[in-house]
Automatic annotation (TrEMBL):
The gene coding this protein: LOC111481670
Signal peptide: 1-22
Compositionally skewed regions (Basic residues) per UniProt: 31-40
GO biological process: lipid catabolic process
Organism: Cucurbita maxima (Pumpkin)
The protein, known as: GDSL esterase/lipase At5g03610-like
Swiss-Prot/TrEMBL keywords: Hydrolase, Lipid degradation, Lipid metabolism, Signal
Region (Disordered): 28-50
Amino acid sequence: MDSKSLLCFSILCFSLLPELSGVVRVSAGRGSHRHRHRERRSSQSLGGGELWNSNPRKLFVFGDSYVDTGNNRKPAAKSWQYPYGVTFPGKPTGRFSDGRVLTDYLAKYLKVKSPIPYKWRKVGYGQLKYGMNFAYGGTGVFNTFVMSPNMSTQIDFFQQLIGELTFTSQDLQSSVALVSLAGNDYSVYQATDGSAQGWQPFITKVVNQLEVNLRRIHGVGVPKIVVTALEPLGCLPSSTVASSFQQCNATENQLVNFHNMLLQQSVAKLNSEVKDASASTFILLDLYSSFMAALNNKGDHLGNVKFENPLKPCCVGVSSEYSCGSMGSNGEKKYTICEDPGAAFFWDEVHPTQHGWFAVYSALQANLKQF
């Protein structure tokens, strides 16, 4: 979600507030030596479990930078530039974080390895046995400012591989799909003369297309599809910088809740269409509540890991014209990094640190165990 820096739409969206009451949410439960120590602890704490009775053997991922593990262009994308990847594995791997992202934690929960990015698909069958990641940082349900494939195109890639028998129907029978995106769509809408009156129909349009795409993935043959609710965009550092990282933007989060309410309705509708299903085929993973649980508890549920100021990013540009990873014309760093990324929830202006993602994953445990 590179461009998930949405929004400064507090005034623009005021007229939508009456429609946003009574929102329904899925509940969620609650390279130095120092870096290596935290990395070991995080690796040991990834956890395990089963999302449903029959363990899946493949994970297919569709979305943006919250789940991208290396599809963006190398070395142009900042996810391929230092200090991204400084905590894990110690160098940039195309992940928009200092280490692991949501895909890695869900893969571990499902007891499979994080699937190979689509751009590396020609490396051989041995690398394909865990599925494939089609997610691209900065993209959306629809086209965004970046030249990365949107969700529909990512599904096209998937279907093409099935047609080429890279993945067979038997492969799909033991698979699960992870879908996580939409924030970039709202960034683009805000930046391209979006009006207050237009927010509600545009959010509806985004969720309706998400529903079409989810139905399409299932129609290809994937038996279980996990789709994430939208995270609290009003709590991203790109938004909280206006309050010196002290408080979330409530109006932005109300709009997120409207998106999530519609998405929950779509998931219920899709499940009602599945015949002879003993359990939910479409599963809503509540990132909103899990983000808020991690931020409000300041990481207390992780024991000795606490986020002292959870809204403040760890890696920032030295001025407003620079961002994390920026370099000057002479190769000098134009960014600063906090002393300990393991004590920060956010890595840059929109993405969590590895420990931030682990806190979110921990808060999602009750949500996961429902299935």
